[in-house]
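Please decode residue identities from the backbone states below.
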């Protein structure tokens, strides 16, 4: 029978080091956290050979007393917690008391420190039986780690190239620099200085590390609810990239990879990202320390919330509201609008008074248009192209009229003009050209109308107010047996979505009613697309992402199609609807719906003034 024996202390520390010290970047992170916890205002980091040969960190923190240097190198020794209560509300970055001991077990470690008020500094080498020696140091602490894994060569074989290890070290420094913009931090590698960050505000520090391009393409996030605060920046959906590398999240100043926050982030961007694009964010979540457990991972890169659902919902709604706001545009993406012309500050639009005769359309269509014109906020009547090609002039704001009664091509543009301005013309039946206070606006009319319909459908379904429009002549189309069976199986779901579909033969279905919001679409195409989705995915409660995908399909088929000729009042009506729709900058597939070119950009294009 094998004999049970107590492991030597050195072996215990080396085993523990396997969890804490994964690579040079792990050592660097732990040592930097100690420097920040010591109240440092300036930190210098010097690396050699990717941090494998040398990591030296110099700070101006509070320092360590001579009689505590040896204790700092022992396992489970810390000045940051003394009881379970302290552990449950820990606010420091480091607290486990294992970092220095683990590093000393697998590398050559030396600490030189001068406590504030001490006559001189003391240096201690991380060797068995070593004693502190007098040393010269103005103040603070210098920690040197040399020859990582010199005594465990098997582990050293798993390290990557110097350039790869240095890249991980640089990431670790940048992440901690993001959390503490008030601390000056410099990084050098093999004698070459990579960056020197002076104390700054958070926005400046983020721009220094993530780049000015990230800042100009991002929207500021600022939300609070009880004990939870969320701040930072989230990328504009049209500028999203292809990888997740740009997702940086901090909880109480600690960089984490959290599934709850990650899921909330994906859900907030779900309706506005194109294809496989991934959002880039730099978010700082502040929460009562008693509501989050940071002691769940040796490297402290994961946390556990006491109640994750409120955190998920808070982050989700904060980001969703941020993405729903208008923003001033740079070329190629919808930008935030100046405060003086925000929709809420714009002159209110009052519905025009039209008569049926003035519309010049058939009575049923005229009734629908008049209902919208006099109650623009009603969900059961909405801008939609008429199948019979009738004009939608009743949907537009009151047009400017010349003295002779002719409609002006567009209203005078001034600082009080609407954010998207007034329509000038239609380009190839696909794009709307409009003029606002800043320059030229180009709108993809199908994508824009698709977003408008989608948001209206979501609100209507949430409020169980999906108005149904009966068709005068049912739309009959051929269907296979599976579609006919699906009509029976999903009758309740179809009714909830505003459809009335019945079988009229062994291989035919008839659409007798459609949602009023989609009355301009092709009923047969709408029904086919909806039945195909229901057959593939089922209903599974039409309340989550699947429900939104169904509504997105409906909106896509119901939106105004390309090559549909619109009048100027119709185009203006679409622009006004966009201004009052959340997330109108992207369609349901994440494509941009509009883009703006300022007068300055146009002048540069044509070399005016040069």
């Amino acid at each position: 029978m094998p004999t049970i024996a107590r492991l030597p202390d050195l072996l215990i520390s080396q085993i523990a080091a396997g969890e804490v010290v994964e690579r040079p970047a792990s050592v660097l992170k732990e040592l930097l956290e100690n420097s920040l916890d010591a109240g440092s205002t300036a930190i210098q980091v010097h690396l050699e050979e990717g941090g494998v040969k040398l990591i030296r960190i110099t700070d101006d923190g509070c320092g360590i007393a001579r009689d505590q240097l040896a204790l700092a190198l022992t396992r489970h020794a810390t000045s940051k917690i003394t009881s379970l209560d302290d552990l449950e509300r820990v606010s420091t970055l480091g607290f486990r008391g294992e970092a220095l001991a683990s590093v000393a077990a697998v590398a050559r470690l030396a600490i030189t420190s001068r406590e504030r008020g001490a006559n001189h500094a003391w240096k201690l080498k991380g060797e068995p039986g070593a004693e502190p020696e007098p040393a010269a140091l103005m103040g603070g602490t210098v920690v040197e780690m040399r020859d990582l894994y010199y005594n465990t060569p098997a582990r050293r074989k798993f390290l990557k190239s110097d350039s790869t290890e240095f890249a991980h070290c640089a990431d670790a420094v940048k992440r901690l620099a993001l959390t503490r913009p008030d601390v000056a931090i410099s990084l050098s590698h093999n004698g070459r200085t990579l960056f020197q960050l002076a104390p700054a505000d958070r926005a400046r520090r983020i721009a220094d590390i993530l780049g000015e391009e990230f800042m100009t393409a991002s929207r500021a996030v600022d939300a609070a609810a009880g004990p939870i605060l969320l701040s930072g920046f989230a990328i504009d959906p049209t500028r999203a990239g292809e990888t997740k590398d740009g997702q940086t999240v901090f909880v109480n100043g600690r960089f984490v990879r959290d599934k709850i926050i990650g899921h909330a982030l994906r859900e907030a961007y779900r309706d506005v990202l194109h294809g496989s694009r991934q959002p880039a964010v730099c978010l700082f979540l502040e929460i009562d320390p008693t509501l989050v457990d940071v002691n769940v991972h040796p490297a402290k890169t994961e946390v556990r919330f006491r109640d994750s659902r409120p955190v998920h919902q808070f982050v989700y709604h904060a980001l969703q509201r941020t993405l729903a706001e208008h923003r001033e545009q740079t070329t190629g993406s919808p930008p935030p609008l100046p405060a003086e012309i925000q929709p809420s500050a714009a002159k209110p639009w009052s519905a025009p008074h039209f008569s049926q005769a003035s519309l010049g359309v058939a009575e049923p269509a005229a009734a629908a248009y008049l209902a919208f014109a006099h109650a623009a906020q009603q969900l059961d009547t909405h801008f939609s192209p008429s199948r019979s090609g009738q004009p939608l002039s009743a949907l537009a704001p009151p047009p400017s009229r010349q003295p002779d009664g002719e409609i002006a091509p567009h209203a005078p543009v001034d600082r009080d003009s609407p954010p998207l301005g007034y329509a000038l013309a239609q380009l190839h039946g696909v794009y709307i050209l409009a003029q606002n206070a800043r320059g030229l606006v180009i709108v993809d009319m199908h994508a824009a109308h698709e977003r408008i319909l989608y948001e209206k459908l979501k609100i209507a379904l949430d409020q169980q107010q999906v108005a149904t429009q009966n068709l005068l002549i049912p739309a009959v189309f051929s269907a296979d047996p599976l579609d006919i069976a699906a009509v029976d199986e999903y009758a309740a779901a179809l009714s909830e979505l505003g459809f009335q579909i019945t079988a009229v033969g062994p291989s035919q279905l008839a659409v007798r009613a459609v949602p009023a919001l989609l009355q301009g679409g092709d009923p047969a195409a709408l029904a086919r697309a909806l039945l195909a989705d229901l057959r593939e995915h089922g209903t599974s409660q039409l309340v989550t992402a699947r429900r939104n995908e169904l509504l997105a399909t409906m909106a896509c088929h119901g939106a105004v199609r390309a090559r549909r000729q619109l009048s100027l009042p119709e185009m203006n009506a679409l622009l006004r609807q966009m201004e009052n729709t959340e997330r109108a900058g992207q369609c349901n597939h994440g494509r941009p719906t509009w883009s703006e070119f300022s007068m300055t950009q146009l002048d540069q294009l044509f070399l005016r003034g040069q």
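Observation: The chain has a mean pLDDT of 78.
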